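ok so i was messing around last nite and threw this chain in just to see what happens. nothing serious, just curious
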Amino acid sequence: MTIALSIRQPFAWAIFHAGMDIVNRDWPTTHRGRILIHAAQIGRQEDYNAFLEACRDPGHWLCGAITDVGGLPPREILPRGGIIGEADLVDCVTEHQSPWFKGPYGFVLGSVRALPFRQCDGSMRFFDVDEELLRHES
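result:
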């Protein structure tokens, strides 16, 4: 078993395409090591709108990150309800210089790698995923 963390879109997309190196949570973790990144089934329109609003301001740091990768995909095509990648969870912090940090806790990610989409149910907090799921075609 490997553990996964469910993240709403467009934040899950941003981990792999816009340099998002921190996942904000209101709870700490002592876990370190590989985690799977799960794109949550449910997303919030206001999250997507915030990304779009940042792109309207060429001076906003997020605008550059999104523009550099060709723009934010339309909301309806962002994958949801499955594993989309993996990362190393290297630290849990209460302060960080990353513009992605909002707190109160930030899970610092490293060595991110996109994986082929694998549909699976998510859960709150960390949850177990059978490695066998990653070996089969969707």
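not much to say yet. The two ends are 19 Å apart (CA to CA).
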